[in-house]
Amino acid sequence: MSEFLERIDVVDIDTLHRDYDVDKVIDYVHEGIEAPTGSYPLDLYRKYEAQRWNISDLSFEEDKKDWTDKMTPLQRDTFLRVATGFHHGERQVAVDIMPLIIAAPKDEHKVYMTSQMEDEARHTIFFDRFYREVVGFEATDLMDTLDQSYQYMTETFIGAFGYLAYISDQLRQRPHDKRLLVSAITNYHMWIEGVLALSVMKITLGFCKRNQILPGFHKGFLATTRDESRHVVFGMHLLQELLADDPSLKTAVYDTVVTMLIMGSTYTQPVDYTPLGVERDSVRDILITNLRKKLGMVGLPIPPELERMMQGVQPENAAGG
C-alpha cells in the first residue's frame, strides 16, 4: 500500500474531507489485500478505534444553504434517489447483522463485527440529521424520517435488502450452517457494501467534490466510506478464510452473486444520473468494476456466463445501495 493511502488510516475526518477524494478512499479498500491471518479482525478493530468519528461534530449549516441556493430541483431529486437507498440500507444492515455475529466462527470475528454494528447505527443517525437539517424533513423519530424518504426509493433496494433479511433470518435459525454464512457475507459485505454502497459513494461524493458543495455531507459520508472500507476488507478476508477451509463453499458465493445480478437486471423506475454529472454507462461501469474487484479479492475467477450477466446489470442499482 502506498504511503499516500496509508495516511488514510490515521488522518482525522477534517483532513480526510480536505485532502482526499472518494476515489482515493475506494482505492484504500482495494489496495494491499493479503491472505488472511489470525489477527486481521483485531487489526481492523484497532482501526475502528482510531478512525471512529462523532456525528455531533458535524455542521450542516452550509449544506442547508447549498441545498437551496446551489442545486437545481433535478439535482436535488437525483441526489435523493441515489442517497435514499443508502439511508434505508444503513438502518437495514444495523438490524440484520446480529445473526452474522452469532454465526461468525471465532470470537475475534464477533468482536470486530460489534464495531461494524456501531458504525451502521452511527451512519443511520448521520443520514437522519441530513434529511432533517438539510432536506427539511419534519420527523418525529428515526422511522418517521425513513417513512418520508421512502418516496425516493427504487425497487432495486427491495431485492438486495429483502434477500439480506431472508438470509439473516435463516442464519438465525441455523447459525452453524457455513453455506448460509457465506451467502450472507457475499450478500452483505461483497454486494451491498462492496458494490452498491461504494457506487453510491462515488456518485454522490464525486458530485460534492467537483462542485464544492454540501461540505457537512461530504465530510460525514467520506468518513462513512472509510468505515465501509473496513467492513468490506473484513468480509473479503472472512470469505477467503471460509473458502480455504472448505472450497466447496465457492458455489454459495457464485449462487448469491447470480441472485443479486438477476435482481439487478430489471427495473421499472429509471434514474437519470446526468444532473449529478454522471452518464448511465459510467454508472454501470462503476458497478461492474466494483464487483469484479471483490471477486478478485477473494480469488474467484469470473466464468463466461457470470461475465455476461454482469454486463446486464442496470445503473438503477446504484440508487438502491
From TrEMBL:
InterPro entries: Ferritin-like_SF, RNR-like, RNR_small_fam. GO terms for molecular function: oxidoreductase activity. Pfam families: Ribonuc_red_sm. Its cofactor is Fe cation. GO terms for biological process: deoxyribonucleotide biosynthetic process. It comes from the Bacteria. This is Uncharacterized protein.
